[in-house]
What we know:
- The structure holds two protein chains of two kinds.
- By secondary structure, chain A is of the alpha/beta class.
- Chain A folds into two domains: 2-220, P-loop containing nucleotide triphosphate hydrolases (Rossmann fold, 3-Layer(aba) Sandwich); 223-310, 2-Layer Sandwich (Alpha-Beta Plaits).
- Chain A has helices at 41-48, 70-76, 92-102, 107-121, 136-148, 166-181, 193-199, 217-222, 267-279, 293-301, and strands spanning 2-10, 16-25, 30-35, 56-61, 64-65, 77-80, 154-158, 185-190, 202-207, 210-215, 227-234, 249-254, 257-263, 283-290, 308-310.
- In chain A, strands 6-7-8-3-9-10 form a six-stranded mixed β-sheet, with helices on both faces.
- Chain A is globular and about 65 Å long.
- Chain B has one domain (2-241).
- Chain B contains ten helices and no strands.
- Chain B starts with a helix and ends with a helix.
- The model of chain B has no long low-confidence stretch (mean pLDDT 87).
Amino acid sequence: MLTIDGVTKTYRGGVRANDGVHLRVGASEVYGLLGHNGAGKTTLVNQVVGLAAPDAGTIVLDGQDLVADPGLARRLCSIQPQAQVPITGLTPRRAIELTGRLRGGRADDARRRTAALADALDIGEWMDTDAARLSGGVKRLTSFAMAAVVPGRLVILDEPTNDVDPVRRRLLWAQVRALADGGAGVLLVTHNVVEAERSVDRLAILDRGRVVVEGTPVELRASVPDELRLDLTLEPGAEPPDPPAWALRAVRENGHRMVVTVPAFRAGDAAGWALAEQRAGRVEEFGLAPATLEDAYVALVGGTDRAEVRDGRAA
Amino acid sequence: MDALRSYVLLVTWQVLRVRVMLPLAIVVQALLAVGIVLGYPLLFPEIDRTTTLFLATAAPTITLVTMGLVLVPQVVAQAKTEGSLDFLRSLPVPRIVYLFADLTVWLVVVLPGVVFAIVAAQWRFGLDMHVSPLVVPAFLLVAFTATSVGYAIAAVLPPMLANLTTQVLVVFVLMFSPLTFPADRLPGWLAAIHGVLPIQAMGEVVRGTLATNAFPLTLGAFLALGAWCAASFTVTSLVLTRRA
């Protein structure tokens, strides 16, 4: 349905935000676009909806060239931008209904669909509250509903779950799936790998403007098949342990957590090492589990947005 | 048809957006307009009929021009900063409809002030002004040209710079433009600049239609302003449809 081919975009000042990006998003598919801050995700999205023009490459939706006709791009795509949509002076109900009608929906359809979304996302009690008094999470859900009220053939969601509480996140994911079931393609932009793993059908990881890998979550996890992750909770105040020489990677996630990636055949050694560290008072508790998509992600693009990275790659 | 529908919806959106500050904005604009009529004469120890007529007919022009060149770019720059401009630009609405929708809302804000200024002039100075029906196209032409230029300023410049530019423009319009005084008082070089800029023509078409008994209405001024209107509209359309 959406085909992005060789899209390259260099901003004035020489920053190459996209570098020969290829992507395919099918109808009824939730497609994840993952990457660090500054990986080029939002730039790519802006080119799809016609807010920016690529220097090279093509963007085709349902056989129609979106680069040549940005007006068409805006009719065929609805978008939830990454920044909060300012709906100053409006209530969520007004904002969602007006967006639906501006997207070509009839007044009564927009009203009905708005009410249904409010129910599905459990934000009914704030639907008539002035925007100035809404919490960040409700604002975010409102802007999701603005993109979903009269969805385009392609619905683009840029970090839709930021600020949203865990219960309503689930409701939101159900609605994302419902959009795809209704026939739309969903392009989901996120750096939340854990959520993406559960929610997307396929995904691409973007790094410094290039697609470094593309596939289903299972395929991507399989790119690190013989790896296990050892989750350590560090003892507060104690010296952090030195990762063993045979560890593949060690990432310090925050003050008290460390993830050490080890080869699967070292499972026994890893458990033994962690137990010894626990007895030595440097580790509070630990767990050993198969690698996740997040591990695959870190292995592919490196951990440069973590607090601290120690590359423990060894023979 | 689609464009008209989008226009009505966008006007609704913008009116709701500024609903809270709308009454205040109308009052401030009215005070500004009436203030020009009643305040400027204080600068002169004695004031003759021609001067009062100049001031009375300058007030509507100044109000419309400051709306377009100051108010509009400030609001657009703010919308740009907070991200609502980009969101609205991602909707399937012809870009130029935004310009018309904003123009409508701001006309509602400034028109009461324009009317109050004329009434205040009649009341304070007992002026006898013969108003021509051409005043309607004259006002619209002035408002539309000023708004187009203001929109282009806000769209092209970074928000901070756009705001600064409007500050400079307001001084230029109030103090150094032949609106409250005749053009022949300008030094030669400034008169030459105003020969190119649209502000003088704006003053002339408003004066010439508000007080037909006192000021000539020349086709030249209308044509010059029409040309500026077309040019600024074209530039603004290009700027609004431009992709990053």
